[in-house]
User: Fold these one by one.
Assistant:
Number 1:
Amino acid sequence: MNFASDNWAGATPEVMAALARHNDGYSPAYGGDPLSLSVAQRFSELFERGVEVWFTATGTASNSLGLAALSRPGGVVFCGEDAHVHTDESGATEFQSGGMKLVPLRSPLGLIDAGALATALGKHPVGGRSIPVALSLTNATEWGTVYGVAQVAELSAMARAGGLKVHMDGARFGNAVAALGVTPAELTWKAGVDFLSFGATKNGCWAAEAIVVFTPGLLGDFEPRRQRAGHTFSKARFVAAQFEGYLEQDNWLRRAGHANAMSERLRAGIRASSVARLGWENTANEVFAVISKAALARLRAAGGAAHEWPSDGLAADETLVRLVTSWATTEADVDGFLGVL
């Protein structure tokens, strides 16, 4: 009954098998190996166009290095007020970019409000002292909600009209794609996204993230930037191996779909409960529920885990918890949690 985070789950069998499969013998270092090149081609096939792929070890590195590659004096990046780049990455984008400013926008349930973006663009006009350079969207969001294709397209069009590039933080990109039933291309470049932080670690990899650039060359001379940040792997084949196992036979979507299904099982049980309620409705693999503090104590006593989430307006004996399901979550885990309520 561990719902602390999908980061807590291990690597999937197919990812571990790919790592073992590519462990024998020698292979060129620093990404020049045949496997890394074939995985880059696999990304092009996945996104239905030629893309540029840069491996990193963490989502924070993908987000901050990608955005920093667009930096310029007075640069501004718009993001959601609860976006990971803004609240959880310890100023990584500002640091990697040499001081580019993040400007958080109103984002109910994690989804940036189009009116708030329009207002922000009006406050930072082209030719002003602060120069908007990018819009960062998180999909799926930290609230477990998902931007649909039309929403991405609307915000991207506004950003492009203001001269901005569009970045997508896809730490849970698989969950978003699986929830919507669309193609990766439809949710990204076809809707106006310029580059994507393609997350895999949360969905069953050991440590594998990638920056996928839909217009090769957009991030400029990126290799020395990545090297300076310490994210150029010498044994890059082992990152590529994880992606091989992750992407083959659509394992990534199957695993994300399972995590989403376990979340929906949780939501259904909480909707039917007389002693708990949903904080809000969503579709990805995070569930936010209002439960009693006694129930949370029982869960933890049984060896389960869930994070309490800040919230106002609850009764003294209530708490809001975030429950994150993963590829490893079982129906028994879900039913066990519902049983402690």
Note: The chain has a mean pLDDT of 96.
Number 2:
Amino acid sequence: MKIRLFEKQDAEKIAQLFHETVREINIHDYSKAQVQAWAPDNIHFRDWENRCSNRFTYVADDKGAIAGFGELEPNGHIDCFYCHKNYQRCGVGSQIYQAVETKALELGLKHLTTEASITAKTFFQRMGFSVIKEQEVSCRGEVFINYLMQKNL
């Protein structure tokens, strides 16, 4: 497993990984309507190419298969952070997170923040994040519970 920065040719695989993970993993914590709003069928990989190119996006590359990815914004916000459904609970997320935190320290950031899903909350707690507050967010007409979380570096 190699953790590396995003390359443009990763965009389609990342879009697919996001869609499948939300639909098959997050469905355990959210309703069918919620996951369909979160990860709609009409995903455009060009949107993912632009998004991932404008952040520090780390990819877990398992001999060409994308096992996961995580995005760090220059202000210390971790936006998308997903592991492929076949790579859950085997250390991939921890490896991606270590790359993200290392970059944050290089940038001189004092803390990291994220809005973790119900599904991801325990992972981020294991990485040292604390819940600041539970919140409701809306996306494409659906309301979701997630958690504003922070870690001091």
Note: The longest strand covers residues 142-152.
Number 3:
Amino acid sequence: MQTLQGKTALVTGSSRGIGRAIAQRLAADGATVVVTARSHAASESTRGGRTETIPGTVAETVALIEAAGGTAIALPADLTDPDQRDALIRETVQRTGRLDILVNNAGFADYSTIDTMSMAAFDRTVDHYLRVPFALSQAAIPHMRAAGAGWIVNVGSSTGLPPIRPFRDYNKDSGDVIYASAKAALHRFSQGLAAELLADDIAVNVVGPSTAVRTPGAAALLPDGYECEPVEYLAQTVREMCVVPAAERTGLVAFSLHYPWSTGTTVRTLDGTGELPPLEPPAWSNPNIVPAGV
């Protein structure tokens, strides 16, 4: 199923986890995927004063894609650096000749309760989840207009929806309020941008996990025993946002178990060669999720 043959996709934060899975899935459909993260080396993460090395590199993602018969290019960039951020779009177009798909996945979740969060952590969270998608989208738009179409997918979160009431214990002490607020802003940004770009046939959609994906970066933030979902369902949902014109599918905030289940979408393995069974969203997932997107 080479539905993306001849297209270029840039996936940020694709050295591991959700970004890597999205890159693999788009490559399986024929896209040339530009894999980017902060550096060629595994990155370090500091949370609560503790620093740890998180596995995963852009070279590893490229190797996985190429081993499955796909095409990928590694372009490391620190997206909080304006010069590197701007150069990433330019170099993507220089290396591949075009930019059709932008997936804004990169992020950093520094969870702290409001009374303990530093201003640096606040700024870093807002930077990752709102400023960077804004800047990359803005830089990508002229290239998509020139091509006559394009697709922007921003990775959202169910935390950006109103919390379940009565409040769960998680909401009382998880420290995700600023992260969730930034994701809520990203949802609204995406829907507004979708309206602005509809006439240009550039689709803008949001895809988030229905529950959570246990990635190397998220593992430390998830409570013991938390029921997670396979990453393939999220990667497939992103793929669905990149294959039809904006007039047919834009401005959605969709979630990775709910969307395939409600629309009857077949979920394929990351290499595109196999099918996974339909997976019903759990009853305890956020009731504010609209199954087919809103």
Note: The chain has a mean pLDDT of 91.
Number 4:
Amino acid sequence: MKIAYVLNTYPQPSHSFIRRELHALERQGIDILRLPMRAATVPLVDPDDQLEATRCEYVLQAGLLRLLLALCLQAKQPKRLWNSLKLALSLGGRSDVSRLRHLIYLLEAAYVKESCAAWGVQHVHAHFGTNATAVAMLVQELGGPSYSFTTHGPEEFDAPHALSLGEKINRSAFAVAISSFGRSQLSRWADFGSWQRLNVVHCGIEPARFSEPKPLPKGDLRIVAIGRFVEQKGQMILIQALAEVVKTHPEIHLSLVGDGEMRPDLERAIAAKKLQDHVTLTGWLAEEGVRAELAKSHALVMPSFAEGLPMVVMEAMAAARPVVATYVAGTPELVQQEETGWLVPAGDPIVLADALKQLAGTSHEMLEKIGQQGRLRVLQRHDSDVEAAKLAALFRNHLSS
């Protein structure tokens, strides 16, 4: 089986779950052509990401002339080309900027179709229901392979009409959500007749990388938060909560792993709250560095306002670390109150502070027990090879039908 993966920007530091999925599918014997639109604009610090980048055929690096030539080749099937042009313009809606963007997607789709034909691709899969899926849908309309796609959230669920999410589902061979919550959101926009095409395939971890979790550390309470520094990840609320916690637990220390546009705001907030001795900003770390930060910590904190199903929560649980997370999207499907961690409402620094105080007051033995219960749960539900086998079965079932 030969599958093309159409992606927007890949690899990226925050998208290691896609790389794990690709490698797991290849272990299942599936050949995969990687067709991202563009390379990452941030440095790739993880050696696995650096290697993955060398395996990609970047569509936009082909240049405008090559993309125009690919589009001209579609004139051999004028009706399909005309229908694809109409589809691209309809997806663009009334905005001239959006229409132009979708005409660019049509150029990309023509190139992707030619690459798929040269490689003998039987099916196209995209990640995220945004522009990558628009390109995959236009590839099919041009007469190329069928397509499917995986949605993650929250971006797709924030703007389903602007993204034509329902039409993308209805035209697809099948659509995948990474949680039951995600599937429920897709059901809101798909025709009832398309509901049987909606599937849940979890993002996965590689258990071998967490085969021997480090013991929970002794000493002062250390917590870690991992993610892009953007509003939806809620790090600013965490800083506000931490300012309350240090009043009664001055020994607490937070490591913020990641980077992004909000870093200057976070640095100012840390200084304003006089938390410089309690917070370390590490920048982006390779997977080995992330695991090292988890090993040094007693718990992961995930204060997000919106999510899909966070990979860092899975990784923390696999490392036998309790999790304090917000009650959003698919997170409660993984984090169970006082069994694998604590759940709090999003956006409330006082309630988050109370949960962190509860964490600080929990015995070392109980934290170990909670961590082990979380580890068992995530290994049962999120093994990358098991989840890839589900996706491979969907590919095979479609291609054999």
Note: The domain at 2-204+383-400 is CATH 3.40.50.2000 (Rossmann fold).
